[in-house]
Design brief:
With 138 residues, the chain is mainly α. Helices cover 95% and strands 0% of the residues. The chain crosses the membrane at residues 117-135.
Length: 138
Amino acid sequence: MNRDQIEGGIRNLKGRGRTALGAVTGRARPQAEGAYEQIAGVAQAAYGRTRERAEELYEDGYRFADEAASRGRHFRDEAVEHGRHLHREARSRGRHLRDEANRRGHALAVRAEENRGATLALVAAAAFGLGWLVSRRR
């Protein structure tokens, strides 16, 4: 409860008292002034309630925005960490595949070196076959 609500309630009560006193004494002026005070008190109390609700909405909005920013930072941090994990995984797999290709290439080179005649025959056959295929398409 804020100051306007309290003052408005007190003003409303004072106005009721003046209106009642004017009615008892039979005087119109205190009755009219009392009715004015009642209306002013009700309006001031309503303003106080509205202001209080606006402050609550502002605070709710501020908390909502703060939580949204916090969640955004959390999601960003998760995405960065996931990206780092994927990067490490890709590098690890790339290294593994590179090492495997090097190992197999070396093994193939050793095998070709050990079997020079068979390697030369295979290369010649492949070259002949490729040449034959290219010349047939013309």
